[in-house]
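### Sample
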Amino acid sequence: MDLRKELIQIVEKSGALSAWGVKHCFRVYHLSKELSSHLSLDDEVLYTSAMLHDTGKYPVYALKNIDHALRSKGVAANLLQQMMFPPEKIPLVLDAIENHMYYSEPGKSDEAIYLRESDILDNLGNIGLMRLFSLVGQDELIQTPEDAIERARLLADALPDKVVTRAGKRLAVKRREETLRFLAGIKRQSLEFAWL
């Protein structure tokens, strides 16, 4: 089977919520390519990293009290060996996966840096808001619309400073503004969130 199709099947069969599933992985991959268009990244490493970066939070693979980035790295290591992925590229994929979270330092390779940037940016703006509200009642941190709004506010304040590339910083500013416009509109239309 084609590697890309196999990776898609892994995510589809993992029990992933749609906010973290295949479409999120596609957005992260394509945004990584867009932001790094001036470079020649290894597309196989980038695509594989994007598809497997969140596996550690999917129900089939998740372990309680284990950081999902570390769990994703372990899951990916096993899967890639089984799939006969080029062994010289496995460390690049694992580094990108381990360091994809906003609270991590960027990984060593350009693929890792742009994967992290794109994952951060997918939490901001219209797409980030859609993802947050789709998680209401599905995520322990987001049980109510008010929780989603508070999380959106926190992400809008914190995430732009985590982005390190010039292209990523420009997009972070735009997506932060989208988030803040939405929050201001909801505040006006809901008696300062009282009517949510």
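The chain has a mean pLDDT of 96. This sample (Putative domain HDIG-containing protein) is used throughout the tutorial notebook.
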